[in-house]
């Protein structure tokens, strides 16, 4: 006997909306089992991980700070995924945007002008778009797998960043540490409240723009049709190649914007490591938010909580901060599992040998 997945003729829209809640419930249950296996009181540990960060002002600020790049990147990824195009290299586009945007305050260090920050944001967006255009070009021109190309470019961007901060862009007065000069005040994102910076406003604006683009524009309709029904899109005259390129450029641009917003808002300089893996975590955010801009906001806050909760668990419970990655993995696993059972059902099928014996017996 074996199990087969059989596609359902129709899937429940209600279950599509509820499945993220089911996935989170399963994550909490298995998280409690995980904490119990580590010798901790499950309820107390879950409180430390999921509830305590919401009770203190500093941790609320950190949740918003970490949610900002997640939301921006996930918005762009949702466009690619809706077009049935798989951009897995947002981490590299994030890094490329940070490098491109940081060019001005590093190379023209003495330039103190109100124009520098807007120009940095524009350069960061263009840098992310340029990095995303590479896998899009190879996909549309040569049929290359965009998953592999975009993923490999992540490591190219990270190595480029490492080389720059250890070499030509290293701070000459930084005691040989691998980091760039500190940005001048005009090149730093304005603070809104404590650690919360202006990048959060950019994320809110991006959510509104993407919601209008996907729901009210012809381009948004084209992206969704190309992703859901390629043959119908071809009959309607929609170009698959142009849609792939457009989706990648939007995705890369938002990832690059997130990169320069993070560097100029939270860090204030370039370092070898500027991201704890935002580009990969944003994939979970996009799917948990159902590829919907508003849903992505809530999913971004939730995944930001996994970073802060992991740090709280490390301090209070004395366990590894990598527990946050474990919870992120569980969320993704259960979201994809729930989505699978929404669209498919399990069927028990007899093996060929068993079917032959049954036929012989009859």
What would a concise description of this structure say?
The chain is mostly helical. It is 71% helix and 5% strand.
Q: How many individual β-strands?
A: 4
Share of β-strand residues: under 5%
Mean pLDDT: 92
> What form results from the Cα inertia axes?
globular
Structural class: mainly alpha
Distance between the termini: 19 Å
Largest sheet, spatial ordering of strands: 1-4
Assembly type of the chains comes to single chain
The H/E string reads EHHHHHHEEHHHHHHHEH
Helical amount = over 70%
Instruction: Describe the main β-sheet briefly.
Output: 2 strands, antiparallel
Alpha plus pi helix count = 14
Cα-based radius of gyration, to the nearest Å: 23 Å
Parts with pLDDT < 50 across at least 5 consecutive residues? none
Overview of the structural elements:
- Helices cover 71% and strands 5% of the residues.
- The chain has helices spanning 13-37, 42-51, 57-82, 90-107, 116-142, 146-166, 199-216, 218-228, 230-235, 240-267, 278-288, 293-317, 323-343, 352-361, and strands spanning 2-7, 191-193, 196-197, 344-349.
- The strands form 2 sheets. Strands 1-4 form a two-stranded antiparallel ribbon. A two-stranded antiparallel sheet has the order 2-3.
- β2 and β3 (196-197) form a beta hairpin.
- The longest helix has 28 residues, at 240-267.
């Amino acid at each position: 006997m074996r199990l087969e997945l059989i596609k359902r003729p129709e899937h429940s829209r209600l279950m599509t909306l509820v499945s993220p809640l089911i996935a989170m419930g399963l994550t909490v249950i298995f998280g409690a089992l995980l904490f119990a296996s580590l010798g901790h009181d499950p309820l107390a540990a879950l409180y430390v991980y999921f509830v305590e960060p919401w009770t203190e002002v500093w941790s609320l600020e950190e949740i918003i700070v970490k949610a900002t790049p997640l939301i921006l990147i996930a918005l762009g990824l949702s466009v690619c995924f809706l077009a049935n195009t798989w951009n897995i290299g947002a981490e590299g586009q994030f890094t490329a945007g940070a490098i491109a945007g940081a060019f001005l305050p590093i190379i023209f260090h003495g330039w103190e002008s109100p124009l520098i920050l807007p120009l940095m944001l524009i350069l960061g967006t263009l840098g992310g778009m340029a990095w995303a255009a590479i896998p899009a070009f190879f996909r549309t021109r040569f049929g290359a797998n965009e998953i592999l190309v975009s993923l490999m470019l992540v490591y190219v961007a990270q190595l480029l960043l490492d080389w720059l901060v250890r070499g030509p862009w290293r701070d000459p007065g930084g005691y040989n540490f691998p980091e760039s000069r500190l940005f001048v005040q005009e090149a730093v994102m304005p603070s809104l409240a404590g650690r919360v910076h202006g990048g959060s406003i950019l994320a809110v604006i991006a959510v509104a723009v993407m919601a209008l683009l996907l729901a009210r524009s012809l381009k948004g309709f084209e992206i969704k049709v190309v992703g859901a029904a390629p043959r119908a899109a071809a009959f309607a005259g929609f170009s698959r190649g142009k849609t792939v390129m457009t989706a990648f450029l939007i995705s890369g641009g938002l990832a690059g914007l997130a990169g320069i917003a993070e560097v100029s808002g939270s860090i204030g300089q370039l370092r070898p490591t500027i991201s704890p893996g935002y580009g990969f975590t944003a994939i979970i955010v996009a799917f948990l938010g159902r590829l919907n801009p508003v849903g992505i906001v809530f999913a971004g806050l939730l995944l930001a909580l996994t970073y802060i909760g992991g740090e709280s668990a490390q301090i209070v419970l004395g366990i590894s901060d990598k527990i946050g990655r474990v919870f992120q993995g569980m969320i993704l696993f259960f979201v994809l599992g729930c989505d699978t059972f929404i669209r498919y059902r399990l069927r028990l099928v007899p093996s060929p040998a068993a079917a032959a014996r049954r036929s012989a017996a009859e």
